[in-house]
Description:
binds zinc ion, mainly alpha, 41% helix
Amino acid sequence: MSNNTMMTPPVHLSLPPSTPKPTEGCAVCAALAKQRAEAEARGNFSAAADCNVELRNCPHRRATDRKNV
Ligand SMILES: [Zn+2]
């Protein structure tokens, strides 16, 4: 019987190791990616992180785009 409990890595409050990529064709993603780029350009990484969260949560409303992540 193997009970393999995955350890979750600690959450870093600095830049995340991987930033979510905007999905092609998704207007919400495109807008968020633009906002994120602008926030990073201003040095506002808090706002950029918010955009990353929204990018991850984006439902990508497109009928033809149904991929399992
Ligand atoms: Zn999207």
